[in-house]
Amino acid sequence: MTRTSSAIPVAQRVGGFSYAIRNIVAEAQKIEAAGRKVRYLNIGDPIIFGFHTPPHMIEAVERAMRDGDNGYAPSVGILKAREAVTAECIQRGMPMTPDRVVVTSGTSEGIELALTALAGPGDEVLIPVPTYPLYTAVLAKIGATPVFYRTDEKRGWQPDVDHVRSLVTPATRALVVIDPNNPTGATYSGEARAALVDLANRHNFPLLADEVYADLAFNGPVPAIASLNQDAPVITFSSLSKAYLAPGWRSGWLAVGKTDRLDDVLAGIKKLADGRLCSTGPMEHALAAALTGDRSHQRSFRQALSERAAVTYEQLNAIDGITCARPNAAFYAMPRVELPQGKTDEDFVLGLLRTAAVLCVYGSGFATTPGDGYFRVVFLASPAELREIYTLIAEFTREFLNGRTG
Ligand SMILES: Cc1ncc(COP(=O)(O)O)c(C=O)c1O
Questions:
Q1: Gap from CA of 34 to ligand 1 centroid (Å)
Q2: Pocket residues for ligand 1 (CB within 6 Å)?
Q3: How far apart, in whole angstroms, are the C-alpha atoms of residue 304 and residue 388?
Q4: Beta partners for 150?
Q5: What is the pLDDT of residue 2?
């Protein structure tokens, strides 16, 4: 038998994507290993910051486990969960039936199933920039091409609908809309939403509506984008991760709009879902408990987020050289620092980490241009801690812009 010591190669596609939100943690761990406390503003996980999963959801999972619901679930998910998602869609203005719902391992798996069913090599998918990196990661895996459309910081990160329109080609397979948005914290205007859904309708490609933050707009839940045009081909995605405070459960759903134009796509998604067996069974029992049960935690969560957004907006804009659009939803802001010539967003973020032990994610991790100086802040920490952190960012920015560090 021949033995060699050369490394076993990985498939080429692995080189095709990176995940800045998690990559940068390795750098932070080095700082921690040197004995310093790092303030993590990189991951949108409310549990780490002391928010709690509602007890009635935990009870539903416990009960399911004790009742013996520990086997494989149907690959589309248990009927009770699909009925709850159906009722939720209808209440948000999107006509639905349980046979068009698939229970997934988070929004992430729903998006992966839909994109895999829709696009392959040579196909194009319209995604926003700044983007959520899951989209570029999945498109790299399936060999399809991301085509980035602008969202405009000066207009509170509204999508540039004319730009979207100009990017449509015969190879376009889907339009991704993330509203409310990560990483910008924006909610889109009714006008932009209607224009995007009409565009998808007219060109006959699906609008993939990432609505995982729909219940976390500070002014109250955002209706389904599908409600603006009930004939349009829309697939909606969401989960228990954010508005129901259970990200580790990996429990979510997709729901395919009620138009026969999407029937083949629905069949394709179900076929792919068969291939991965099912999502986590006991957690499916929490879906009905979450969607049909007490949601009072959402009111206080929105209030807590809105308070943190205000602190973020005020303190970041008070720093010389930093501007930040006001977030209207979720727990993200995308400030911009005026970089000195030749510096990148990564230089700023790594300098901030090494000097002040504050970890943000550089904008280019969300596909913005490195020289534009964007970075993302997750503002889930308490207002008092956020104030301390923004003071550290202010001190570092002063030094960085004076060329003393970074
Ligand atoms: C816009 C967006 N979509 C999808 C996801 C993934 O969520 P899930 O935990 O439901 O897979 C996230 C998570 O941060 C997100 O911000």
A1: 32
A2: 44, 106-108, 132, 134, 178, 182, 210, 212, 239, 241, 247, 252
A3: 17
A4: 129
A5: 65
Residue with the smallest CA separation from ligand 1 atom 16 is: 182
> With contact defined as beta carbons under 8 Å apart, do 260 and 102 qualify?
no
Following DSSP, what letter does each residue of 57-82 receive, concatenated? HHHHHHHHHHTT--SPPPTT--HHHH
Three-state SS string over 261-297 comes to: HHHHHHHHHHHHHHHCCCCCHHHHHHHHHHHHCCCHH
* Strand order across the beta sheet in which 158-159 lies: 101-104, 252-256, 234-239, 207-210, 172-178, 124-129, 145-152, 158-159
Q: Residue 309, SS3?
A: helix
Whether 236 contacts 255, CB under 8 Å: yes
- Low-confidence residues of the chain, pLDDT below 50? none
Residue 382 CB neighbours (<10 A): 14
Nearest Cα residue to 114 out of 203, 175, 183: 175
Encoding tokens for residue 189?
Answer: 């205007």
CA of 111 to the centre of ligand 1 (A): 9
Q: How far apart are CA 319 and CA 135, in angstroms?
A: 32
Using one digit for the tens of pLDDT, what is the confidence trace for 169-196? 999 999 999 999 999 999 999 999 999 9
User: From CA 331, how far away is CA 46, in angstroms rounded?
Assistant: 9
Tokens of 208: 């993939």
Say what the pLDDT of residue 14 is.
80
Bridge partners (DSSP) of residue 236 are 209, 255
pTM (two decimals): 0.96
Amino acid letter, residue 178: I
